[in-house]
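Journal club side-thread
Mid-discussion, someone asked how the predicted structure for our own chain would compare to the paper's figures. Pasting it here so we can look after the session.
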Amino acid sequence: MKAVFLDRDGTIGGTGGGIHPYDFSMYNFAPKAIKSLNQVGVKVFLFTNQTRVGRGYFTEDELIKGFQMMMEELAKQSAFLDGIYYCPHKPDDGCECQKPNIGLLLKAKEMHNLNLEECYVVGDTGGSDMLAANKAGTKKVLVKTGWGEGSLTKYRYEWQEVEPDYIADNLVDAVSWILNDLIK
Protein backbone atom coordinates (compact mmCIF):
# COMPACT_ATOMS: atom_id res chain seq x y z
CA MET A 1 0.00 0.00 0.00
CA LYS A 2 1.34 3.39 -1.00
CA ALA A 3 0.61 6.55 0.93
CA VAL A 4 1.36 10.25 1.06
CA PHE A 5 1.96 11.90 4.42
CA LEU A 6 1.17 15.60 4.49
CA ASP A 7 2.37 18.05 7.08
CA ARG A 8 -0.33 20.52 8.13
CA ASP A 9 1.10 23.96 8.92
CA GLY A 10 2.79 25.47 5.90
CA THR A 11 2.04 22.52 3.62
CA ILE A 12 -1.74 22.30 3.29
CA GLY A 13 -2.42 25.67 4.88
CA GLY A 14 -1.39 28.20 7.48
CA THR A 15 1.91 30.03 7.61
CA GLY A 16 4.26 27.31 8.76
CA GLY A 17 4.04 28.03 12.47
CA GLY A 18 1.53 26.25 14.66
CA ILE A 19 -1.73 28.14 15.00
CA HIS A 20 -4.94 27.54 16.91
CA PRO A 21 -6.95 24.79 15.19
CA TYR A 22 -9.99 27.06 14.86
CA ASP A 23 -7.86 29.66 13.05
CA PHE A 24 -6.27 27.20 10.64
CA SER A 25 -7.33 27.47 7.01
CA MET A 26 -6.23 25.41 4.07
CA TYR A 27 -4.71 26.92 0.98
CA ASN A 28 -7.42 27.16 -1.67
CA PHE A 29 -5.57 24.59 -3.81
CA ALA A 30 -5.09 21.98 -1.04
CA PRO A 31 -8.44 20.14 -1.35
CA LYS A 32 -8.01 19.70 -5.10
CA ALA A 33 -4.48 18.36 -4.63
CA ILE A 34 -5.65 15.90 -1.96
CA LYS A 35 -8.59 14.86 -4.15
CA SER A 36 -6.14 14.05 -6.98
CA LEU A 37 -4.47 11.51 -4.69
CA ASN A 38 -7.83 10.17 -3.47
CA GLN A 39 -8.94 9.56 -7.06
CA VAL A 40 -6.03 7.25 -7.84
CA GLY A 41 -6.41 5.25 -4.63
CA VAL A 42 -3.34 6.54 -2.82
CA LYS A 43 -3.83 6.79 0.95
CA VAL A 44 -3.44 10.35 2.26
CA PHE A 45 -2.50 10.93 5.87
CA LEU A 46 -2.01 14.11 7.84
CA PHE A 47 1.03 13.96 10.10
CA THR A 48 1.80 16.93 12.23
CA ASN A 49 3.59 18.14 15.32
CA GLN A 50 1.14 19.99 17.55
CA THR A 51 3.40 20.93 20.46
CA ARG A 52 1.11 23.80 21.39
CA VAL A 53 -1.21 21.23 22.99
CA GLY A 54 1.55 20.13 25.36
CA ARG A 55 2.55 23.73 25.97
CA GLY A 56 -1.00 24.71 26.93
CA TYR A 57 -1.91 27.03 24.05
CA PHE A 58 -4.99 24.95 23.25
CA THR A 59 -6.45 21.60 24.30
CA GLU A 60 -6.31 18.28 22.54
CA ASP A 61 -10.12 18.43 22.27
CA GLU A 62 -9.81 21.77 20.43
CA LEU A 63 -7.20 20.23 18.13
CA ILE A 64 -9.47 17.30 17.32
CA LYS A 65 -12.40 19.67 16.69
CA GLY A 66 -10.12 21.65 14.33
CA PHE A 67 -9.25 18.43 12.48
CA GLN A 68 -12.97 17.68 12.16
CA MET A 69 -13.57 21.16 10.73
CA MET A 70 -10.78 20.56 8.20
CA MET A 71 -12.24 17.17 7.25
CA GLU A 72 -15.66 18.79 6.73
CA GLU A 73 -14.12 21.42 4.47
CA LEU A 74 -12.34 18.71 2.46
CA ALA A 75 -15.57 16.72 2.15
CA LYS A 76 -17.33 19.75 0.65
CA GLN A 77 -14.81 19.48 -2.18
CA SER A 78 -15.00 15.65 -2.46
CA ALA A 79 -11.60 15.13 -0.85
CA PHE A 80 -10.64 13.26 2.29
CA LEU A 81 -7.82 12.16 4.54
CA ASP A 82 -7.44 8.46 5.32
CA GLY A 83 -6.08 9.23 8.77
CA ILE A 84 -4.62 11.86 11.03
CA TYR A 85 -1.47 11.31 13.06
CA TYR A 86 -0.30 14.03 15.42
CA CYS A 87 2.12 14.60 18.25
CA PRO A 88 0.64 16.69 21.08
CA HIS A 89 3.77 16.61 23.26
CA LYS A 90 6.05 19.43 24.35
CA PRO A 91 9.36 19.63 22.49
CA ASP A 92 11.32 18.44 25.53
CA ASP A 93 9.05 15.49 26.42
CA GLY A 94 11.35 13.03 24.65
CA CYS A 95 8.54 11.22 22.82
CA GLU A 96 9.05 9.05 19.76
CA CYS A 97 6.23 10.65 17.77
CA GLN A 98 7.47 14.22 17.41
CA LYS A 99 9.08 14.86 14.05
CA PRO A 100 11.90 14.43 13.16
CA ASN A 101 11.31 11.16 15.07
CA ILE A 102 9.31 8.66 13.08
CA GLY A 103 6.79 7.31 15.60
CA LEU A 104 3.84 8.77 13.66
CA LEU A 105 5.02 7.15 10.44
CA LEU A 106 5.62 3.80 12.16
CA LYS A 107 2.15 3.89 13.70
CA ALA A 108 0.57 4.49 10.29
CA LYS A 109 2.76 1.78 8.77
CA GLU A 110 1.51 -0.73 11.32
CA MET A 111 -2.14 0.29 11.11
CA HIS A 112 -2.31 0.36 7.30
CA ASN A 113 0.29 -2.26 6.32
CA LEU A 114 2.44 0.29 4.51
CA ASN A 115 5.83 -0.13 2.93
CA LEU A 116 7.37 3.21 3.90
CA GLU A 117 9.90 2.98 1.07
CA GLU A 118 6.96 3.30 -1.33
CA CYS A 119 5.47 6.27 0.55
CA TYR A 120 6.01 10.00 0.33
CA VAL A 121 6.37 12.74 2.92
CA VAL A 122 5.41 16.25 1.86
CA GLY A 123 6.34 19.08 4.19
CA ASP A 124 7.73 22.58 4.46
CA THR A 125 10.46 22.03 7.03
CA GLY A 126 13.73 20.31 6.39
CA GLY A 127 14.62 20.06 10.07
CA SER A 128 11.54 18.01 10.91
CA ASP A 129 9.62 16.78 7.85
CA MET A 130 12.57 15.94 5.60
CA LEU A 131 14.64 14.46 8.43
CA ALA A 132 11.70 12.24 9.46
CA ALA A 133 11.18 11.16 5.85
CA ASN A 134 14.86 10.35 5.52
CA LYS A 135 14.91 8.29 8.74
CA ALA A 136 11.81 6.36 7.65
CA GLY A 137 13.07 5.75 4.12
CA THR A 138 10.18 7.51 2.37
CA LYS A 139 10.51 9.78 -0.62
CA LYS A 140 10.97 13.41 0.42
CA VAL A 141 9.10 16.34 -1.12
CA LEU A 142 9.75 19.81 0.26
CA VAL A 143 7.21 22.51 -0.55
CA LYS A 144 8.28 26.14 -0.72
CA THR A 145 5.10 27.34 1.03
CA GLY A 146 5.09 28.00 4.77
CA TRP A 147 8.65 27.70 6.03
CA GLY A 148 9.88 25.94 2.89
CA GLU A 149 11.91 28.81 1.48
CA GLY A 150 13.61 29.29 4.84
CA SER A 151 14.33 25.56 5.06
CA LEU A 152 16.15 25.79 1.76
CA THR A 153 18.21 28.83 2.74
CA LYS A 154 18.56 30.13 6.31
CA TYR A 155 17.90 26.75 7.99
CA ARG A 156 19.48 24.42 5.43
CA TYR A 157 22.28 23.63 7.88
CA GLU A 158 19.75 21.75 10.09
CA TRP A 159 19.31 19.07 7.44
CA GLN A 160 22.33 19.54 5.17
CA GLU A 161 22.96 15.78 4.92
CA VAL A 162 19.51 15.18 3.38
CA GLU A 163 18.47 15.94 -0.19
CA PRO A 164 14.79 16.11 -1.07
CA ASP A 165 13.66 13.93 -3.94
CA TYR A 166 11.74 16.94 -5.21
CA ILE A 167 11.36 20.62 -4.31
CA ALA A 168 7.83 21.78 -5.10
CA ASP A 169 6.42 25.27 -5.36
CA ASN A 170 3.31 24.14 -3.43
CA LEU A 171 1.13 21.12 -2.71
CA VAL A 172 -0.33 21.04 -6.25
CA ASP A 173 3.18 20.84 -7.70
CA ALA A 174 4.15 18.20 -5.12
CA VAL A 175 1.13 16.01 -5.93
CA SER A 176 1.76 16.36 -9.66
CA TRP A 177 5.33 15.12 -9.15
CA ILE A 178 4.14 12.26 -6.93
CA LEU A 179 1.51 11.15 -9.47
CA ASN A 180 4.17 11.14 -12.21
CA ASP A 181 6.60 9.27 -9.96
CA LEU A 182 3.97 6.62 -9.17
CA ILE A 183 3.60 5.63 -12.82
CA LYS A 184 7.32 5.17 -13.41
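Post-session note: The mean pLDDT is 95.
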